[in-house]
């Protein structure tokens, strides 16, 4: 009985040990299979990677480049650098010191408007005159007045816009005066719209005062400045430029800062809102929305016109106003250009410039299908780097002499100054645009 009990006691124990042994063997088998699989996977991956690498080097260099799998080599790096060096983007660069004297001064050109004539008005520093724009991968040639006049022979060139546009025109005329002085053949009573003629080249240059491109009116209450209202019609073009548009071979448009003014906005001769009018109970409309609609109407009219001049839109001109040391004091008294990392001006212009680019691209696509040449003179960024180029207090003659009320001008540009570079870029665009049509390069 004792033996049976012992046997009976141990039989279950032996069965349990058997099951454990079988489980252990099975587990080891699974581990072996898994380990073998992992080894095969790693071997296969390494083999494939080696095979791809071997295949890369077995392909021709041209096929490697086409598949974008060619490993970097010293030779390819040199070729890429050379390719980049050959790509010239006139708009990307920096201002570098220039020992050259400006192309003109207030003494050699008597057409500079007083509010832009910083030298004559007594600005003491002259460092702002000695910088030139250097694109990263090339050089921007200085303005060549003879090349411009020859290219514009028997042509008409219209500048449509505001006082910033005036600065561009007077810079151009002062530089052209080294070859020929124009005949002033027309001006309105305020000298806002003017016409000059170059008889030796049969070239006519027009300036049309149209600061909004769209129709506008002003009303006042017996001269009370606080009661002056500007009325902008978003759906009507300004006839001052549209009436003569068919006479122009080249058109440059430069508008912008006037849109900051307080204004009442119309569509279909009905008031739809206003901008900067806290005293009026009207819907407030953002300045960039107003600007966009004005550009949409104007550029679409140009792009779909039967008349097909060469049209250039110059981008927004930045303002460099900064707070001074005194309460409510505004200054722009810097004396050298910014480097890229030094820009700290909270300029609203980048929003407006974005609107310009977007609307220009839409219109240019329409114009291209209609045979209208349109280009963007994108001076915004390179001008943003020139906080030293504004008149500041020197928009008036010797502002600190006597007891004068000083007005700080951080919007317009001294002549000579950075605006002269705008004309260097304009010349390249005009010449290269004509070269594209003729199939040859004139640069």
From TrEMBL:
Entry GO terms, CC: Golgi membrane
Spans through the membrane: 20-43
Alphabetized UniProt keyword annotations: Golgi apparatus, Membrane, Signal-anchor, Transmembrane, Transmembrane helix
Domain Trichome birefringence-like C-terminal: start-end pairs: 140-429
Residue ranges of every copy of the Trichome birefringence-like N-terminal domain listed in the record: 86-139
A Pfam family of this chain: PMR5N
InterPro entries the UniProt entry points to: TBL (IPR029962), TBL_C (IPR026057), TBL_N (IPR025846)
Membrane topology of this protein: Single-pass type II membrane protein
Highest taxon of the lineage: Eukaryota
Compartments where found: Golgi apparatus membrane
Family label: Belongs to the PC-esterase family. TBL subfamily.
Record-given protein name: Protein trichome birefringence-like 26
Species assigned in the record: Dioscorea cayennensis subsp. rotundata (White Guinea yam)
């Amino acid at each position: 009985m004792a033996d049976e009990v012992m046997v009976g006691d141990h039989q279950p124990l032996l069965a349990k040990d058997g099951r454990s042994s079988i489980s252990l063997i099975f587990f080891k088998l699974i581990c072996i299979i898994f380990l073998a699989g992992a080894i095969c996977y790693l071997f296969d991956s390494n083999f494939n990677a080696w095979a791809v690498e071997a295949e890369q080097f077995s392909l021709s260099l041209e096929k490697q480049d086409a598949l974008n799998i060619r490993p970097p080599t010293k030779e390819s790096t040199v070729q890429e650098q050379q390719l980049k060096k050959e790509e010239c983007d006139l708009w990307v660069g920096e201002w570098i010191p220039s020992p050259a004297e400006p192309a003109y001064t207030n003494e050699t050109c008597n057409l500079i408007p007083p509010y832009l004539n910083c030298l004559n008005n007594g600005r003491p520093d002259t460092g702002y005159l000695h910088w030139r724009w250097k694109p990263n991968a090339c050089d921007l040639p200085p303005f060549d007045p003879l090349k411009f006049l020859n290219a514009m022979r028997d042509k008409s060139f219209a500048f449509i816009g505001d006082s910033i546009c005036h600065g561009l025109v007077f810079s151009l005329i002062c530089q052209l005066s080294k070859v020929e002085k124009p005949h002033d053949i027309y001006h309105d009573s305020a000298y806002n719209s003017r016409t000059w003629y170059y008889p030796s080249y049969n070239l006519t240059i027009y300036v049309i005062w149209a600061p909004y491109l769209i129709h506008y009116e002003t009303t006042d209450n017996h001269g009370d400045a606080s009661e002056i209202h500007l009325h902008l019609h978003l759906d009507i073009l300004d006839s001052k430029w549209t009436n003569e548009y068919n006479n122009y071979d080249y058109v440059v448009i430069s508008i912008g800062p006037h849109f900051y003014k307080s204004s009442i906005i119309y569509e279909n001769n009905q008031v739809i809102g206003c901008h900067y009018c806290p005293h009026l109970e009207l819907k407030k409309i953002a300045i960039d929305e107003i600007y966009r609609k004005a550009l949409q109407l104007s550029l679409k009219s140009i792009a779909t016109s039967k008349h097909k001049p060469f049209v250039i839109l110059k981008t927004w001109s930045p303002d460099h106003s900064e707070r001074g040391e005194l309460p409510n004091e505004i200054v722009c008294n810097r004396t050298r250009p910014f480097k890229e990392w030094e820009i700290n001006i909270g300029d609203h212009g980048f929003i407006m410039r974005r609107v310009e680019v977007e609307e220009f691209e839409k219109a240019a696509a329409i114009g291209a299908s209609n045979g209208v040449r349109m280009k963007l003179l994108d001076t915004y960024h390179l001008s943003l780097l020139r906080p030293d180029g504004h008149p500041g207090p020197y928009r008036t003659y010797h502002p600190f002499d006597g007891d004068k009320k000083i007005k700080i001008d951080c919007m317009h540009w001294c002549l000579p100054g950075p605006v002269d570079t705008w004309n260097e870029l304009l010349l390249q665009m005009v010449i290269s645009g004509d070269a594209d049509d003729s199939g040859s390069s004139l640069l």
